[in-house]
Specification:
This protein is of the alpha/beta class. It is 44% helix and 11% strand. It has helices at 22-34, 42-49, 54-63, 74-92, 99-105, 118-128, 141-144, 152-161, 175-183, 199-202; strands spanning 9-12, 110-114, 138-140, 168-172, 187-190, 206-207.
Length: 218
Amino acid sequence: MPKTPAIDALLFDLDGTLVDSEHAGLEVLHQMACGLGLGWSLAESQQRFRGVPMPQCVSVIARHLPEGQAKLDEVQFLRDLRAAMAERFRRDLQEIPGANALLASLKIPFAVATNGPREKAALTLSLTGLDRWLEGRVFCAPEEGSYKPEPGLFLHAAQALGCDPAHCAVVEDSLPGMLGGLAAGMRVFSLHPRQGLPSHVAQQVTFIGQLADLQRWL
């Protein structure tokens, strides 16, 4: 069996991996979708939209509006959605347990690679105190023009850190992010449980129960 390459750099997803924003953000999205007459359950919304860029989520909602509903102004809806999410985050956003402690302890380069826009990343990182560890090392898909599950965002982040992709590891909680990391040729650590993942993905990732578990692999 070939030896697993050493891990020389870590690339973290943000929402649901370092900051506990995934569930809250999806709740806001679900509530606003229901306000348009969609009858999805919260679980259905989470399954549809977890890890998916917000503009794509809005487009899906627009395509599924009830018959007779006026055409959705997707630009305005997205603007209102981001404002509602920001308000929710300011009320009760927390770090994922152990995030600050882990970043403070790392001895190898690390960065954030997120599908979200820079404004959202800056807000959630500052609210949780994680911004102090990540100055100049936050890479956002809208700026790079490559969204997970494409590998481009991860490859750009690895290049910026001066690290061979084969020696980078990705830490993710969503399927699109895991697929992007695998496509980039990187090792992938999953905070998402095995249940619910396609078997071919589950066979290729390393499952961790919490962020602190990463230390045993470094």
